[in-house]
Specification:
By secondary structure, this protein is of the alpha+beta class. It is built from six helices and seven strands. Strand 2 and strand 3 form a beta hairpin.
């Protein structure tokens, strides 16, 4: 059975986070959308993870670099999108891969998001111990528009508590796989 080849679309709840946290190479307003392209150098840690994932899947092309292309509409009711594209021999095109590879790359982004969340909350509480955990989590949720994607304070608090039980900040990268956040499927 042939595998479906799909573009790598960043999961919707991750878009506001990476839109704010990645350095933009291009940032413009185009057709009622805020568009941003953020380069991922092939030799960076993230670029290497994407490249290795592509190599393991026998991806036939050797990209020189990757970009994440964000499109955030002016109207709040419209959905933001983000896709990865590649530069090969000076030409840009959206990166299309087997579904499993797209899912694996999104899992990497998911782990980076979760790591940042836990680190943000724990650092805030370390340097301002009088803050309430819920206040810091709500600030994080507001900063990255997580409520509009179905995230709730109680589930984010559970995630934080689960990750903090062992006090090993990088353990997630050793022994866990990103589960399906909110049963996210595409």
């Amino acid at each position: 059975m042939a595998q479906s080849i799909v573009p790598i679309k960043v999961r919707p709840h991750l878009i506001p986070f990476f839109y704010k946290e990645f350095k933009a190479d291009t940032d413009a307003h185009y057709l009622k959308n805020r568009v941003r392209a953020c380069k991922i150098v092939i030799n960076s840690s993230l670029g290497k993870m994407i490249r290795i994932t592509l190599e393991k899947s026998d991806y036939p092309v050797k990209p020189q670099k990757f970009y994440i292309y964000f499109s955030v509409p002016d109207k709040v009711s419209d959905k933001a999108t983000a896709e990865i594209y590649q530069t090969v021999k000076g030409s840009n095109s959206f990166l299309k891969v087997p579904e499993k590879v797209a899912s694996d790359i999104n899992d990497i982004f998911e782990d980076l998001f979760r790591y940042n969340f836990v680190l943000t909350v724990s650092t805030a509480l370390k340097y301002a111990p009088n803050l309430k955990v819920e206040k810091v989590i709500l600030d994080f949720m507001t900063e990255y528009n997580l409520e509009e994607h179905g995230f709730r304070l109680d589930t984010m608090r559970s995630l934080y508590n689960r990750e903090m039980r062992e006090s090993l900040s990088l353990k997630r990268f050793q022994s866990k796989s990103s589960n399906r956040v909110l049963n996210f499927s595409k």
